[in-house]
Amino acid sequence: MKRRPHTLGTMTDTPTHCPYCALQCGMSLGGDGAEEAPGGRGLPLRVVPREDVPANRGGLCQKGWTSTELLAVPDRLATPLMRASRDAPLEPCGWDEALDRIVSEITRSQGAYGPDSVAVFGGGGLTNEKAYQLGKFARVALRTSQIDYNGRFCMSSAAAASGRAFGMDRGLPGPITDLGRADAVLLVGGNVAETMPPFMRHLTDMQKAGGALIVVDPRRTATARQANLHLQPTPGTDLALANGLLHLAIVDGLLDEAYLKARTSGFEAVRTVVNAYMPERVERITGVPVPYMREAVRLLARGARSYILTARGTEQHARGTDMVTAFINLALGLGLPGREGAGYGCLTGQGNGQGGREHGQKADQLPGYRKIDDPAARAHVAAVWGVDPGDLPGPGRSAYELLSALGTAGGPRAMLLFGSNPVVSAPRASAVEERLDALDFLAVADFVPSETARRADVVLPTAQWAEESGTMTNLEGRVLRRNRAVRPPGGVRTDLEILAVLADRLHAPGTWSAEPAEVFEELREASAGGLADYSGITYARIEKEGGVFWPCPSEDHPGTPRPFLDRFATPDGRARMTPVEHGGPAEDVDGDYPVYLTTGRVLAQYQSGAQTRRVRPLADAAPEAFVELHPDLADRLGIAEGAAVRVASRRGAATVRARLTDAIRHDTVFIPFHWAGEGRANLLTNPALDPMSRMPEFKVCAVRLEPVPTPIDEGATS
To answer: Is the CB of residue 665 less than 8 Å from the CB of residue 595?
Structure first.
């Protein structure tokens, strides 16, 4: 979507990047010449897309165009809030009072129950500097192992599968512009036309040049409508489909035998498993016709420059790691990974979903993608932090396990939360609400009173994306600079400032800077030698080069836009193929719950909606939750277009409006997950966890639908 920029103002434009998805579209922010807002903030800011950023090349979606409206939403927090007791209201207070309360509660809890009684929960939208400092704060200032982040709900299955196969996880296998020259792209479980619209132009370029787009999705999404071939499987059957495609590649003589021999290990074990996935059997499991499967394999194998890309639709499952592994096996069988202009990749979702999972927010991780239980990793990072390696805690609980343990015997009694809204975004959300309410103390740092912040004992107002500097790592693995365009309102502090002052009040060892550039310098040192090595990346290089690809181990290193060209990051340099078997969803349909539910996003909203639901043009474009169902299913159930529908699972029920479409399977319904209240999709979703990635099964569960005789309350899904 391109649009003419607003009338130029007198303010010098500030180059930066969009606050939303991992495409990190380039934009410049400038003034309209309007009167300055209180505090000399120079609002409103106009948005001008940047042509010099390859990811978007001058394009933005509606969310990007309206992104500066976030800076002045009506309920923007401008002062700390605190409640005197659990049943008292949140009321304004001073910063010293709020910080004193947090430190007092931390000290009390840890004195009574130990370091792990205090937990930290982060977010995939935090800058690299903030993600790094948050992980350090948990391990050094709090000495707790109980830290994880909402990125566990996004790319963790793809990360686990990539680590198992390639020895390293990094979103795309090359610059995004490589896609425009591909022979074919198989996109599994992703709807980029709505989730990151400027991405589509790279796929359109490919198609114009004769390449083929193949989309795997239970819905005929906006992306699927633009595909050359759409495979529409039953939810939860992607693994069987991938094994079936590899079976066809074998029997049709499409394998790259020389590549398999030279660059992989484990293929014979995989061959033995996929031999049982005959096309007719796979059609019965998935519902995808055999000719469609055969055509997909033919298109992928017709040239050497093809991609297999996975997204949340195939990753957010209790077998998500194995599902992604099956598609990696297919890519390896065709000889794609480790070749320029080809390979396997994961479409990272959140703005810093890539960088956010590299530097210490995960329960088992230290900066540089190091494992926290690796003695050498502990020694390196401890030396940077100025602490004894023995003082660093070990691995903690993963995100949903951490949330489930809150307020339980042996679980955390207090929590600090930055950049996340689990009341809306976590599976089985009503149970998460109960656990948050069971805490002795909850502190939330946010810029608006999100659904989670409203349950807190202390709320700290934080700066937003355009009000602070830092770095982000986009879905390509390219480290980018986010520059401050305007000062935050008076009374608002950055997350780095909050962490630094809390560390000081807790008498934490080491240094704690609130300056992003200084924190990044420490991150460089801490990541040195790790898989995600940022040590050769500097702010100056990022500005000069338009971003730097990691790993980059020295300042004279060019960065690594295409890893694996020479070898994979495994001990023997070979990609490891792992046999995986289809097992179906953790919860299948039955007589009581006869319909599959799948969830996802819509064009005008983002994640839990805490940001986008407050932007008027976006709220007008997508004002409420809905359930998408096939007209035949609606007819059987007596449900009319626009009618209120109660959708129930074994975990809860949501009330939403019906939207009838033949773009979805007869046995499946879809609810977007951006809304709170009675329309909350995650009241229904299944928290069954993948054994490797600890990813919950967001993308499939069993539900039943019932017409609701009374109208939906207009505010129920706001």
So the answer is: no
CB 599 within 8 Å of CB 260:
no
Name the stretches of the chain with pLDDT < 70: 1-11, 32-44, 710-718
In this prediction, residue 155 carries a pLDDT of 84
Instruction: Give me the residue label for tokens 């296998």.
Output: 173
How many CB atoms are closer than 10 A to CB 391?
13
pLDDT value of position 712: 55
Of 178, 476, 190, 202, the closest CA to residue 306 belongs to 178
For the record, the structure tokens of 702 come out as 């069993």
DSSP string for 463-483:
--GGGS-EEEE-TTSEEEEE-
Residues pairing with 702 in the sheet: 596
Task: Name residue, tokens 């977010």.
Answer: 123
Report the predicted TM-score, pTM, of the whole model to 2 decimal places: 0.94
Tell me, what's the pLDDT at 434?
Answer: 97
**pLDDT at site 41:** 46
Q: What is the tens place of the pLDDT at every residue in 179-235?
A: 999 999 999 999 999 999 999 999 999 999 999 999 999 999 999 999 999 999 999
* Residues 348, 354: Cα–Cα separation, whole Å: 7
Q: Kindly report the backbone phi and psi dihedral angles of residue 670, in degrees, each rounded to the nearest multiple of 5, phi listed first.
A: -130, 135
Contacts 24+ apart (CB under 8 A), 532-540: 532/170, 532/358, 532/359, 532/367, 532/368, 532/369, 533/368, 534/128, 534/368, 534/479, 537/479, 539/471, 539/481
DSSP string across 632-650? HHHHHHT--TT-EEEEE-S
SS3 104: helix
